[in-house]
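Hypothesis: this fold can be encoded by more than one sequence.
Test: take the structure tokens below, design a sequence, compare later.
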């Protein structure tokens, strides 16, 4: 489900492992045996970050080995400089030209090819034509070694960028390896190993110790422990009892177990998480979009300025020397290359997404990293967000026979996935239930249906009010969560349910306040319950007795007051509010599919403290991205002025381009070492 936003960034192609294996970005894959002359190579613009292969396929070692021509070119250049400059041995001009041409072609032939194809398509203003023009100009005025050096260092910069992107993607693409490619299914003729996609709901699968669970399932074995790190970021074992849900991607730790498949492979939580991760780079942050657009304007402007530096002095300088001013123009061209911005900035955002994913937080786009830095109000649902959503029946009060009352109520609640309903069903575990008919779920109220021929209503007090059924006034004073029941149009009794506040909820609220963020809780539970929980946690404002539309109204009121807010929820009735918020956050463990699909950020382990971690990830990313922007623009501005004045040489120009890009990349690496 795609959210509608006024500032929704343009959709870009998502990163996908299989797709990356087929795509060749601008002929700069350099992998042996690949065809770099495919016509569609040209269709990728490096200013959008696609000029080189950053897919990381084959690993860093193979990337380095595949650039043998570049290394040979570097050896030729260093050998020539050693002989001619250090040992001061005179090298014959034809030999020098031959060596430098060979080194130049080895290092830059792919860049030259791309520049030529771009020119044929009337695309003159890009880094490939810019770099080719500058280096050929150096050859024209006899600065062979400098021309070769510029091309070599440019290509080395691109290699380091590829290695950097390769490294930054590992934490995210590692998720793609957690989905098993086979599963052992229990069949009448014996166990059979099949592809998980071929398994069907209801199949019994066998999982050995150390194996990954391939499909969302129900545990049939009495108990088992699992490593859930791939889904939640938590490394501690999670012990589950018979009947518990086990998700694809979990690793069985201690004994052979049997599971019953409950969800098709393509619909499993892990498959949806992987889709989210793959789509995460599809939405670019406003800063990225600005830099991409800026580069498209900036490059041709500097190109023409370089031309002006070369030509215009002819009309104003008495001792004008063409080669001298051409050299200054070439310095200007090399400096103007926008690599430091167009590579390091997306890399920074990708690092932020990777940092969050390692901590069990999935951002559905780098734009939401920026959004989280601007949030000043966090609105939270209560059940499943601040509380565990694991309810236990505390008290049963009825004017009917208790067992009959519970049998009827649990039979109706058996069609619901609400935590309160599950508590009632669990209380009747092992006892025979009826199949309800004519069931209707009344949002924010409860359930209506027939059980064993009797009309039942089960929900909150608003449900009985809606159907004009009277009940004792003292029930309104009960603070706990309550399920009231009417049978055949008459009040029949109630069940009280208790929930438990999550261990890290109070600390999460304190951390939000420390960041200057206002906290608000919205709940469908009674206002007395909401106020009690809010007081215990130190929440600024709390509202109870809210229907889904009531939550929407409250959130809209905060937005109308100019608040930048994030809403955190887990239930299907939270989906509209999640969509309305500036940043919608879903609790991915207990969360409904609708809420997870609508959300911008998914917290996989359901911990409220991860909300603060998501904000910190955004702030860290934004800080480093802007450091890179200021670094790149400042150094380039200084060296551009020096180049125009004839002070800077091509060596300084190389530093301003490749050197600054490498510094920015190293700075972006810091994101991956941060703790949130």
């Amino acid at each position: 489900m795609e959210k509608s936003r006024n500032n929704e960034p343009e959709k870009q192609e998502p990163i996908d492992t299989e797709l990356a294996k087929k795509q060749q970005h601008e002929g700069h894959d350099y992998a042996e045996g690949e065809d770099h002359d495919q016509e569609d190579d040209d269709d990728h613009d490096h200013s959008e970050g696609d000029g080189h292969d950053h897919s990381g396929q084959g690993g860093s070692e193979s990337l380095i080995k595949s650039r043998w021509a570049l290394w040979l070119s570097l050896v030729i250049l260093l050998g020539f400089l050693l002989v001619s400059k250090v040992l001061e041995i005179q090298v014959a001009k034809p030999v020098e030209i031959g060596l430098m041409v060979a080194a130049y072609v080895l290092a830059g032939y792919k860049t030259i090819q791309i520049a030529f194809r771009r020119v044929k398509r009337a695309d003159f203003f890009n880094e490939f034509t810019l770099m080719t023009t500058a280096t050929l100009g150096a050859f024209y005025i006899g600065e062979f070694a400098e021309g070769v050096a510029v091309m070599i260092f440019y290509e080395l910069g691109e290699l380091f960028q590829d290695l950097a992107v390769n490294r930054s993607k590992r934490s995210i693409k590692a998720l793609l390896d957690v989905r098993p490619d086979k599963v052992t299914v229990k069949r009448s003729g014996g166990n059979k190993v099949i592809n998980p996609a071929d398994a069907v709901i209801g199949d019994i699968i066998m999982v050995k110790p150390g194996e990954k669970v391939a499909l969302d399932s129900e545990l049939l074995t009495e108990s088992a422990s699992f490593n859930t790190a791939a889904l939640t970021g938590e490394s501690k074992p999670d012990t589950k009892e018979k009947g518990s849900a086990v998700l694809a991607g979990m690793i069985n730790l201690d004994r052979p177990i049997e599971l019953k498949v409950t969800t098709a492979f393509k619909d499993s939580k892990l498959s949806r998480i992987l889709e989210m991760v793959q789509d995460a780079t599809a939405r670019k942050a406003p800063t990225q979009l600005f830099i991409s657009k800026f580069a498209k304007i900036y490059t041709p402007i500097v190109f023409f300025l370089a031309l002006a530096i070369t030509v215009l002095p002819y009309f104003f300088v008495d001792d004008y020397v063409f080669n001298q001013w051409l050299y200054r123009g070439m310095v200007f061209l090399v400096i103007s290359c926008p690599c430091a911005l167009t590579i390091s900035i997306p890399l920074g955002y990708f690092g932020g997404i990777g940092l969050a994913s390692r901590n069990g937080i999935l951002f559905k786009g780098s734009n939401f990293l920026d959004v989280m830095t601007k949030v000043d109000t966090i609105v939270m649902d209560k059940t499943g967000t601040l509380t565990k959503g694991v309810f236990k029946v505390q008290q049963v009060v009825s004017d009917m026979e208790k067992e009959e009352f519970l049998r009827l109520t649990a039979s109706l609640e058996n069609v619901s996935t609400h935590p309160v309903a599950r508590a009632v069903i669990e209380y009747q575990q092992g006892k025979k239930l009826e199949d309800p008919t004519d069931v209707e779920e009344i949002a924010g109220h409860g359930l209506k249906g027939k059980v064993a021929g009797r009309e039942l209503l089960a929900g909150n007090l608003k449900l009985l009010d809606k159907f004009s059924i009277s009940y004792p006034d003292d029930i309104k004073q009960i603070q706990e969560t309550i399920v009231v029941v009417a049978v055949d149009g008459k009040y029949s009794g109630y069940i009280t349910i208790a929930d438990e506040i999550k261990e890290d909820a109070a600390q999460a609220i304190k951390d939000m306040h420390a960041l200057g963020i206002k906290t608000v809780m919205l709940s469908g539970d009674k206002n007395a319950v909401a106020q009690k929980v809010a007081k215990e946690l130190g929440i600024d404002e709390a509202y109870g007795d809210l229907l889904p539309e009531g939550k929407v109204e409250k959130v809209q009121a905060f937005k109308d007051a100019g608040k930048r807010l994030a809403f955190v929820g887990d239930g299907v009735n939270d989906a509209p509010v999640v969509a309305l918020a500036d940043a919608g956050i879903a609790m991915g463990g207990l969360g409904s599919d609708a809420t997870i699909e609508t959300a911008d950020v998914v917290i996989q382990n359901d911990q409220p403290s991860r909300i603060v971690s998501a904000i910190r990830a955004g702030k860290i990313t934004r800080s480093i991205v802007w450091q890179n922007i200021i670094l790149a623009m400042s150094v380039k501005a200084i060296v551009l002025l020096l180049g125009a004045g004839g002070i800077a040489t091509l060596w300084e120009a190389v530093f301003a381009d490749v050197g600054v890009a490498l510094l920015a990349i190293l700075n972006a690496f810091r994101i991956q070492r941060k703790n949130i």
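DSSP finds 23 helices and 22 strands in the chain. The radius of gyration is 32 Å.
Hypothesis status: open.
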